[in-house]
Amino acid sequence: MREALFVKRNTDKWKAIEDVLANRGDKPDPDDLTDRFVDLTDDLSYARTFYPESNVTRYLNGLTAQAHRGLMQNQREERGRFVTFWKYELPLLFKKSHPLLALSFIIFVVACLLGALSAAHDATFVRLILGDEYVNMTLENIKKGDPLGVYNSRDQSSMFVQITLNNIFVAFRTFVFGLLASIGTIAMLFYNGVMLGSFQYFFYERGLLLESILKIWIHGTLEISAIVIAGCAGLTVGNSLLFPGTFSRLESFKRGVKQGLKISIGLVPIFITAGFLESFITRLTLPPVVSASIILISAAFIGWYFIFYPIQLNRKLTS
Question: Does this UniProt record's set of keywords contain Membrane (predicted)?
């Protein structure tokens, strides 16, 4: 959409918001003000994407700041910001990040295949990657008829806290390593991919692939997806240094860090959910159809929120 048409279509709406903030019109209730703020941030996101250096972007930025202060005065700031971030800001950010998300996914899948291939040709490779203690414990559990008994070995609540914090730390480290011109992030993706590939081959070699998938991927679907998305965040930071485009390298870097940090924050609820599933659900003996349903629902959510919804939202804004 041309900038002039964008301004023409929205001028009346912006003028109405100005009147509300200046108390020249009827004073709205907090819900109405929140809705107006969401519409305004929607327009600001669009302007930042397509007219980043334009006067209209600066105008909307100032008007949004005024609306934000108005929300604080009505004690609804947290609710409005929460809705805006999850419904508009993060999905639109992901739309711009899809190429790097695809690159992160490709790196991870290639590493998985190399991990499986290495395990297939070297009997000691799995021990090198997973450690002797874990391999010996799993072999002992297989003899007992409970190959995935490791998930029953700890208290549920402490396991939930430990796993969730560890996953968040791994994601944050993957993001921060993007500061090393993306090389650190690529290394993290590669290491985790090789680990997953060798891990799954270990069970395949013993005829337990399907059983392991139906159990491990109850939480693994969200957990692994989040690691790939964290890789996207790290690559965003690294590429901002390598390819600043029309911005100065410092300005590009600041933008990249901000975008990558928002992506990483967006992963926290996913890791909490994955930690809950691993601690409280994975340990249960579920019918295969229930396990498969949880896996498919998790995969559908990841695909919808991080891929299809951003495309749909962006198409709606640009139509």
Answer: yes
- Of 66-80, 87-101, 196-210, give the lowest mean pLDDT range: 66-80
State both tokens at 89: 């800001």
The Cα–Cα gap between 179 and 139 comes to 40
How far apart CA 139 and CA 111 sit, in angstroms, is 25
Distance, CA of 249 to CA of 267 (rounded, Å): 27
Domain boundaries, the chain: 3-75, 90-305+313-318
Quote the Cα angle for 276-279-283, to 5°: 130
What is the reported pLDDT for 17?
A: 81
Rounded Cα distance between 312 and 304, Å, is 10
